Amino acid sequence: MDNEELELRIRPIGYIRTGKAEKFHARHQPLETESEENVLELVEGAGMREAIQDLGGFTRIWLVWWFHRNPGWRPLVLPPRGPAKRRGVFATRSPHRPNALGLTAVRLLGVKPGKLLLGPCDLVEGTPVFDIKPYIPAYDSFPEERVGWMDEVDAAMQQPPAYGVQWGGLAEEQGRWLAEEWGVDFRPRMAELLGRDPSPHRTRRIGRRGERFEIGCGAWRGLFRVEGAIVTVDELQAGYPRRFLNDPARPVLPDREAQLAFLVRWPECGVEGA
Ligand SMILES: C[S@@+](CC[C@H](N)C(=O)[O-])C[C@H]1O[C@@H](n2cnc3c(N)ncnc32)[C@H](O)[C@@H]1O
């Protein structure tokens, strides 16, 4: 049979509820230490109630799912890890694949009629899921294997950061205020990313903003300058526009209250300006 004729039609067996409205709310891979609870709602009928029988007792399952929010694919992609270097998509876990299938091993917390309760996930809200398989350590785990370019990147990460990162007057005051008043502190993560490489990078959410550069970190942004090997973050900004923050139809926005209070205190430090 000609390759062009080979096509597979598949239907979702369920949809995940993670509350992660935007792609950047979801981690690149699930973080096991997070105490997250997510729900996989199985489609009604279609034998799904029987199909999940006997899953109880497995503590982890594989989800095979669809990157349904991605319009196309790219043979070379820019992974978030390591230097700004494009890699063949099949050597990465990038969402931009020719067949946009995602694969995640998730903790199975409970089996209920018509739904599965799951631990931390890297899927956005409403992602269609096509298949579930039990995770079987004897078949699925080979921790000693080598991981190509990722080994090189990990070795480079052991080196000290290439750039020093400092906080300018306003950013310092804003960072302190967010940490003290709201317990929000993304500065260590921002400093880690900028210290490795502050050059523009789509997946690391670094871009140009006029004379300066901008980095996105969770719901927040930092504006910075680079002089030699010193990165100075001058200003922090709330990453969501006010119309989103004040919109009750968007129930899940990270750091919403902190962002609104921040914009009262620094009205000009938002994505729309004052
Ligand atoms: C790096 S991929 C890895 C996914 C999976 N663990 C894998 O290895 O196939 C995870 C990212 O996919 C994105 N993502 C999650 N659900 C998506 C969806 N339904 N459509 C498009 N992108 C999605 C999120 O930005 C998340 O950070």
In words, what does this structure look like?
- This protein is of the alpha+beta class and 274 residues long.
- It has two domains: 3-140, Beta Barrel (Elongation Factor Tu (Ef-tu), domain 3); 164-265, YaeB-like fold, CATH 3.30.2310.20.
- It is built from seven helices and 13 strands.
- The protein has helices at 48-51, 137-140, 148-157, 169-182, 187-196, 242-245, 256-265, and strands at residues 14-17, 38-42, 60-66, 76-77, 87-88, 101-112, 115-118, 128-134, 164-167, 206-209, 212-217, 220-227, 230-238.
- A six-stranded antiparallel beta barrel has the order 1-2-7-6-3-8. A five-stranded mixed beta sheet has the order 9-13-12-11-10.
- A hairpin with a 2-residue loop joins strand 11 (212-217) and strand 12 (220-227).
- The protein is globular, with a radius of gyration of 21 Å.
- The N and C termini lie far apart (62 Å).
Short note summarizing the structure:
The chain contains seven helices and 13 strands. It is an alpha+beta fold and 274 residues long. The protein has two domains: 138 residues, Beta Barrel (Elongation Factor Tu (Ef-tu), domain 3), CATH 2.40.30; 102 residues, 2-Layer Sandwich (YaeB-like fold), CATH 3.30.2310.
| CATH architectural designation of the largest domain | Beta Barrel
Task: Supply the helix-strand structural class.
Answer: alpha+beta
CATH class of the largest domain: Mainly Beta
Distance between the termini: 62 Å
The general outline is globular
Could you please say which CATH topology of the largest domain applies here?
Answer: Elongation Factor Tu (Ef-tu), domain 3
Strand content: 25-35%
